[in-house]
Design goal:
Radius of gyration: 30 Å
Strand content: 15-25%
Number of domains: 3
Oligomer: single chain
Length: 475
């Protein structure tokens, strides 16, 4: 029997606010344990939470970017459960009246765009972090109360690849908006995946399992691949899939049962009595709307149209807002933006990826890329020499002109000087000359290489080819 997977993702993004959602404690990552805490986020008796306005604005911003319905009346609820890193014994979240509903995330899979519909997006506070060590378990409450948006997709994805691309697209958007850094390793973007399988053609959903403990896009895809195969195997053997939460074991490449899956009624949701309902007016929405930057898809289409670069190159360049800005600055006023794109994509990103660095870490300024390309255009240096100049630019941050001057790399364009070198090489290689004249025209490559070797790569390649063709054709 053929089966079809049905996947829905619950993504938590940690918002880039300076303070927590209901108190003034810092949200900075990496502080010593339990130093960013106060009576409010620790849930002490008699304290009252106060909503951080910036959290609401970030939620509105994401809602506008994803085409969600912004509910002008929403409220917070208490989600009750006991866990060591939840100091109050409940989490302040939103339940029946979330701030955002509907909308979708556009993904690009198999050469076409597809929109993944959303169920809802709601605001909530994060829990602390439990750390297990050989000598016992510890709890760090620094993260308790850090603001989150939970983005719940509809169960409309069918492959691990779609799920992976959904996450990448969502991360791209929240980073463009500046509301989340999307760092999965630090936990500022976390994903739980709900997955079930059913016979192809069936419309009724199968029993789902929830997957946790996935800290990279690749792990999400691998965990889904494994779980889909596991569920199909269970059904093929006549068994029943149990509704449960399962952990992804990265080392073994398997999912393992953690606990039976809770239903919403088990959390005993009820409106939080300490927080008044949230009311959003049109003026507030319009103000936030004016702050939304050009989003990845819009930027990609503009790059192709305005700069005339290849779509696949534009897709990479618009992956990060900082990279897109870098390209635009480098291409400013230059006649062939595709050439600039080529240098950034092949050379600059090559060096950065090798050292696992981001575009923000590059020592090369955008205008230096443009200056290097202009040196090649003017014939001052060859393309080959430009690569060695680029390497030094990356290592030292020096301007290309300065490197060319210091190292005496200016291209030889003196025809008479090059003719003299060519004559010497032809004279030393009579057999190769004979081969060329007998019809093996590709032998010219050998001569070009010899000239380049003799000039340490400084000879103008076009002129060298021209002189060699003339000389080799002489009787």
């Amino acid at each position: 029997m053929e089966y079809e997977a049905v996947i829905g993702l619950e993504v938590h993004i940690q918002l880039l606010t300076k303070t927590k959602i209901f108190c003034s404690c810092s949200t900075d990552f990496g502080a010593p344990p339990n130093t960013h805490v106060c009576p409010v986020c620790m849930g002490m008796p008699g304290v009252l939470p106060v909503l951080n306005k910036k959290v609401v604005e970030y939620a509105i911003k994401l809602g506008l970017a994803l085409g969600c319905k912004i509910n002008k009346f929403s409220r917070f609820a208490r989600k009750n459960y006991f866990y060591p890193d939840l100091p109050k014994g409940y989490q302040i979240s939103q339940y029946e009246l979330p701030i955002l509903e509907g909308g979708g995330v556009e993904i690009y899979v198999d050469g076409e765009y597809k929109k993944i519909a959303l169920e809802r997006i709601h605001m909530e506070e994060d829990a602390g972090k439990t750390i297990h060590r050989p000598d016992g378990s510890y709890v760090d409450f620094n993260r308790a109360g850090v603001p989150l948006l939970e983005i719940v997709s509809k169960p409309v994805m069918h492959t691990p690849e779609e799920a992976g691309e959904y996450l990448r697209s969502l991360r791209r958007i929240v980073r463009y908006l500046g509301i989340c850094d999307g760092n999965m390793e630090e936990g500022s973007l976390r994903c739980d995946a709900n997955v079930s399988v059913r016979p192809k053609g069936e419309t009724k959903l199968g029993t789902k399992t929830e997957l946790k403990n996935m800290n990279s896009f690749r792990h999400v895809e691998k965990a889904l691949e494994y779980e889909i195969e596991r569920q199909i195997e269970v059904l093929e053997e006549g068994g029943k899939v149990e509704q449960q939460t399962r952990l992804w074991d990265e080392k073994q490449g398997v999912t393992k049962p953690m606990r039976s899956k809770e239903e919403s009624f088990e959390y005993r949701y009820f409106p939080d009595p300490d927080l008044v309902p949230l009311i959003i007016d049109d003026e507030w929405i319009e103000r936030v709307k004016s702050e939304i930057p050009e989003l990845p898809r819009q930027k990609l289409e503009r790059f192709v149209k305005e700069y005339g670069i290849k779509e696949e190159d534009a897709r990479v360049l618009t992956e990060e807002r900082t990279l897109a800005d870098y390209f635009e600055e480098a291409a400013k006023g230059y006649k062939e933006p595709q050439t600039i794109a080529n240098w950034i994509l092949s050379e600059l990103l090559g060096y950065l990826n090798k050292e696992n660095k981001e575009i923000e870490d590059t020592p090369i300024k955008p205008k230096q890329i443009r200056e290097l390309v202009e040196l090649v255009d003017s014939g001052t240096i060859s393309g080959k020499i430009a690569k060695s100049v680029f390497k030094e630019m990356y290592q030292t941050g020096k301007n290309p002109k300065k490197i060319v001057e210091e190292k005496g790399l200016v291209q030889i364009t003196d025809r008479s000087a090059l003719e003299k070198i060519v004559d010497e090489i032809i004279e030393k290689n009579p057999k190769a000359v004979e081969q060329y004249r007998s019809g093996k025209k590709n032998t010219i490559g050998f001569f070009v290489g010899q000239v380049m070797k003799a000039t340490k790569g400084r000879a103008n390649p076009k002129l060298v080819n021209e002189i060699l063709s003339e000389k080799l054709e002489e009787k």
